[in-house]
Amino acid sequence: MAIISVINQKGGVAKTTTSVNVAASWAKMGKNVLLIDLDPQASATRAIFGDQDFDKTIYDVIINRVTPEETVVHSESFGIDVIPSEIMLSGVDIQIAAHFGRERVLKKKLETIKKKYDAILIDCPPSLGLLTINALMASRDIVIPICPEYFSAKGIDLILETLKNLQVGLGHRVGVRGIVITRYKDRKIAREVIEKIKAEYGVRIFDEYIPDNIAVEEAHHHHMPVLAYSPESRASHAYMNLSTELWNGETQR
Amino acid sequence: MKNNPLFFDSTKFRGDNVIVEIELSGAELSLGESLYAHLVLSDGSDMSVMMSAHGLRKWKCEARVEYQQRIKIQFIVKKAEDVVEKSDLRVVLATYSIQQKWQRSPVLAALKDLSADFDETSEKAVFTNENFVTPKITNDL
Lengths: 253, 141
Known about the structure:
The complex is a heterodimer of chains A (253) and B (141). With 253 residues, chain A is an alpha/beta fold. Helices cover 45% and strands 14% of the residues of chain A. Chain A has helices spanning 15-28, 43-49, 58-62, 68-71, 92-96, 105-113, 130-138, 152-170, 188-200, 214-221, 226-229, 234-251, and strands at residues 2-6, 33-37, 73-75, 80-83, 119-123, 141-146, 175-181. In chain A, strands 3-4-2-5-1-6-7 form a seven-stranded mixed sheet, with helices on both faces. In chain A, helix 1 packs across helix 12 and helix 6 runs parallel beside helix 7 (130-138). Chain A is globular. Chain B is mainly beta and 141 residues long. Chain B is built from two helices and nine strands. Chain B is elongated, with a radius of gyration of 16 Å. The N and C termini of chain B lie close together (8 Å).
């Protein structure tokens, strides 16, 4: 059983796209997958369910109103279980800030439900706060999606620094499963950034780059994973290969 | 030293006993030598814990200390009972993981660089903790 957070404090790096498509690809591979949308913007929830509203969300789980099991919604098109998010989650940091064990709320909540799944993916918010700390404390590994552009390396620095602080201050060591290159265009600047990251960080970059492909956006619009919406597209093949690579990385540990 | 409250364990009070992992990198030992982490706690009590190899020039040990208290730490290389080398003495915040890089005691390094023929009494004077000027220990975080 793996709990993996998809994290990058920088927005617009395809965190949600990576989360929902990797989850769907794993489901296609026969795995039992739970996706937790921990972003108050609820992008993953909307990508999967459209404008559907949910009475019970991850917010209710964190403030101890319901159990995680009560919030799980199954998505037929993605083949996964989802714990949806809502905008109320944006204030939860303040609500739990004074709680004893505030950084381990999610970890404790997942204790029982995690036994039902082969993998749990957490789509993190694009910021560092108690929500992200909760995701990291609940996770064994992280995956870092980045768009290969000028500021990408700085983002990796911040994430690695956060992991170090987590180990030092909270005694929890999180592994970096690898970096996913998203929205890849075969241009000199993108190649240079990737080479720089390879040279400067001892972090694995997954072999499969996710191309900047319109099929991904269209799939979101139709609330489908790209492998179902456009199975022959380059993005679909890329996500399937990436998901296999990511899964094998887990089993080889 | 800045401390981000996001990374403090809310289930522990300052001064609670916790087991911390101490990591030292960059220390190279010769055959027959052992490495110790020498800790001086906020109440003045001290302890020495033997470190074990943990990768290339990396060393690790665990110690029970008081969470979020400032402690003094010094790494000591010994051969049998003799002190071969010491690191500088540092003041650190006791968190779950204390990660340090090896740096020889500047006093000892200067003496060795000068190839000084210091005798047993002068060596003791150099190695005594009280001779080191360290930042004042306070409970402020």
